[in-house]
Amino acid sequence: MADQPQPDVAVAGEAQLAPTAAALSEDAGHHGRPVSWAAVVIITIGFLAGGLGLMVGPTWWLFWVGTGLVAFGGILALGTGIFNDWY
User: What residues have CB less than 8 Å from 78, skipping those under 6 apart?
Assistant: First the structure.
């Protein structure tokens, strides 16, 4: 019984952390600007379209449309500074 901690001693895993400024903000889990998210959505749609184009047939026009969307989304992402969004 001597090994039990006193009630005023913090035990690993039971400590309460003070909330940080990021945790108090409204959108703490969704970093980035809307244009960055739009670029990611365009890249994802392009990737899915290109993959679908390869699975069905292959349907080369759909593959190339997907490739173009991925390229456009990548240029949009780099042009708007998507790498500066992370904090």
Answer: none
pTM assigned to the model: 0.65
At 12-30, the pLDDT tens digits run 665 555 555 545 555 556 6
Could you tell me what percentage of the chain is helix, strand and coil, using 3-state DSSP and rounding each to the nearest 5? 55, 0, 45
Tokens of 22: 């990021």
Question: What are the distances in angstroms from CA 21 to CA 18, 26, 87?
Answer: 10, 10, 12
**CA atoms of 43 and 77, how far apart (whole Å):** 9
Q: What is the pLDDT of residue 16?
A: 59
**Using alpha carbons only, how large is the chain's radius of gyration in Å?**
24
Using DSSP's 3-state secondary structure scheme, residue 86 falls into: coil
CA 27, CA 34: separation in Å to the nearest integer?
12
